[in-house]
Amino acid sequence: MSEKLLVPDIGDFEEVEVIEVLAKQGDELNINDPVITIESDKSSVEIPSTIAGKVEKVEVKVGDKVSRGDIILNIVPSKQNKKENPIPKDTENIIKQAEAALAVKKDEAEVTQQSIQKKEQSTIQATNGKDADPLETQDWLESLSAVISKDGNQRAHFLIKELINKAYREGANIPYTQNTPYINTIPPEAEVKSNGDQNIERRIRSLIRWNAAAMVVRANKKFPELGGHIGTFASAATLYDVGMNHFWRAKNNKFGGDLVYFQGHSAPGMYARAFLEGRLNEKQLDSFRQEVNSGGLSSYPHPWLMPKFWQFPTVSMGLGPMLAIYQARYMKYLINRGLIKDEGRKVWAFLGDGEMDEPESMGAIGLAAREKLDNLIFVVNCNLQRLDGPVRGNGKIIQELEGSFRGAGWNVIKVIWGSYWDSLITNDKTGHLVKIMNETVDGEYQAMKARDGAYVREKFFGKYPETQELVSSLSDKDIWRLNRGGHDPHKVYAAYDKATKNQGSPTVIIAKTIKGYGMGKTGESVNTTHQTKKLDVDDLLYYRDRFDVPLTDEQVRNIEYFKPDEKSPEIKYLKERRLNLGGYLPERTTYAKPIKAPSKDIFDFMKVSTGEKEMSTTMAMVRMFTNLLRDKNISPRLVPIIPDEARTFGMEGFFQKIGIYAHEGQKYEPEDSAQLSSYREDKSGQVLEEGINEAGAMSSWIAAATAYTNHDIEMIPIYIFYSMFGFQRIGDLAWAAGDSQARGFLIGATAGRTTLAGEGLQHQDGHSHLIASTIPNCVTYDPTFHYELAVIFREGLRRMHEKKENVFYYITTMNENYSHPEMPKDINCEEGILKGMYKIKEFNKFRKTKIQLLGSGTILREMMAAAEVLQNEYQIDSEIWSVTSFNELRKDGMEVERYNLLNPDKEQKTSFVEKCLGKSEGPIMAASDYMRMNSDQIRPYTNKSFYSLGTDGFGRSDTRKNLRKFFEVDKEHLVAYSLSVLAKEQLIASKYAKEAIKKYNIDGEKPIPTKL
Ligand SMILES: Cc1ncc(C[n+]2csc(CCOP(=O)(O)OP(=O)(O)O)c2C)c(N)n1
Ligand SMILES: [Mg+2]
To answer: Is the beta carbon of 381 within 6 A of some atom in ligand 1?
Structure first.
């Protein structure tokens, strides 16, 4: 018995056209196999089969109009349909995860219980000076101490939570603080100890410190203009060393490697370590910041300049944290989609405390917690200073960050005090020491480290008699030695160990350090530390002594590097540690296999005319993706990334087809579950739906676009956005993408100043191509017709993902519907499309006067219409050129011109513009939906008269027709301007131009749109 497959609920649409029939009589279908594609004027979507079986008869054909309930085909069901799992896959996964989590929690509870039982009973001390009834407080605290020692922390937490809830219910609406006291999160007795040789590690660290400082000082001695930083790494050396010696696993043939985002200004430290490892030599260190000749070391982490070394560009403050979050998220995405193994790899990001003020730094921390990124560890180096002075002179950056991160749901580990403080804190029976720690502001903490022990005794411990007493047996020197947590390898080790074991949330380690640690009077903890790049002889001698660097005074004066013998215990130790951790870091490699570009015929359907049917290039693009998703090679590698605009671009069909990535699957039945384009979230979903978050979407795109090196898998990310909210919104990230050698597609949809009609000034883009052109490895196109898009896209796939060229593509698509012609038969057409221009039409009837008309994007169509008027009404011939990319033409022109100037004696080359237009007749007039500067770019590469038109000025909302009239790029203006150009060139009489201006009601006195 056959069954009928009907058109499902397709939302608000009726009478939708069938554009493809994918099943035929006799086909064996599985559930979810696409059977037809339907297309409304907004989007195209495949209808999948809901029945498995053999097709008996197909009831629809291409061109039919269908509505909900219409019969698509008759099918004889196979047995496969019978037994369906009543529990959906996602739900089943969620149940499994919940069960696993419960089991883990139970284990954890038992562990905590055991460790607590060992602990001696201690009474928590009351520290609040405003206490109205200290005895009552003491009672409560003693009770709590008893609970902790008898029943453990979990029980104590539970009781406190219940008390707070009770207080809320009783009306005590006092905000609950997100802060803990200003002490280390990990108590000394819970610290996991390192098994490393602390003496050797200290010696190695000292050498790295010395060489890092020496390379900056030497470079500046030679060329004082070069700059560089000593203070940042000096504050962070221990944070890096503990990671390098014990935690960060490199990529090798057995393991994917941890990914470490190094703080940009600490680059000298990474070079200094690589020098000891034998990866860099003295000559290279001496070429720090001298990168023009090969072999130089880049100022900051730049993969473009050191492609085998640096993995991530971080120096533009705020990009590192955001990129790291999305990197960790993308790693989970690849794992959940089954594209890489789950090897427990981590993403580490080192950040400055000043850097945390960048909105981008904290902007995505909510996402990291929501997505449970326990593969992510932030280390914020809180040296309390930024470039000009203190980060929070009047407050405490560590406490502020703790509050924000805890509030967002992160696991927070504060590493404030070093081991020398442990006994003082233990002996602080009255709580006054912690009270001063809490009360002292960062400005004071900084000032203390710029002075000496006596100052600290007076200003810090001297505040209360109890604390004065606490340090009475310590000398000023002892007090000075009281170290900060971030400089204590034991504390740092314990924090890293805890962070790597944390499950279910991201971790931030907030470490307190001293900016310019060890640099002495000129550079330690002073407001100018950041820019200290020169150290005089006394400072250098101090630095040597401070870290026991085995150099003579003479060697110090010569600022010599120090590298122990290869057989020395230091070098052996250092290499052994890295060997144990799988190799060196940072290191950038790629073993990704290329993806074969799809055969040309996959896009054949875009090379024929659409006939009467009108569609936008955005719709053509969605059709193209739908087709690509059927290519077994390409399909799994596509990563569509959308910031809440899928419906704007007609891409909602992707929700059902490939699912939206959601690490927890879908815990609810979506409101539109009965519809074909229902909002389907899935753990293995393919679409990254980022919400209204362009910066996040771009960060995701960068993660996907560099997966070939970070995960050794070539992916094809396609990020689609409103073109106006692209480059100008996320420009710095796009620049970092170029540096990262990203490969993928950026699609600026709803593009053009007059093509996105009603949206107004903030939406209408007339310059994204110009901003994109500032990025050297960004290839850009502004196509008009569907076949141009197909040719460009396929070539992009070939260049980037098959040939592994380190470029990325920016393509604009529009939302104006029009019919698309067949691709011209001229064999040079494809080459022209890719190089930037080709002749699309010629009017040749009169052979008297001719003009060259260049049009781009939708304005090409205005140009074609104008040419027809010129021919029919004014007997003027023309050649019309579709310019797919003024940017690409300019690049070619620039290169050719440069070659010719540098090789005056050789045969001169011809630019592509000149090849096209050199022998053509008449002046040139060019127009696009972008500023005149767009088409002006090619003006130098032709010696003919050249006139540019464009959409300079603020956009505004109106109809397309009115906007094009306003910006003077509509058919009528183009006719009038053409006649004027010809008159100016003395090819026709000026009266024709004057008449046309009058005929079309063009007001010659109207101000230029830039002034309106
Ligand atoms: C977006 C951006 N703005 C400004 C700078 C210039 N800059 C470089 S380092 C720095 C101060 C950094 O302070 P912090 O983050 O605390 O790092 P530290 O060196 O103290 O570890 C500034 C303002 C930059 N690199 N990037
Ligand atoms: Mg700082």
So the answer is: yes
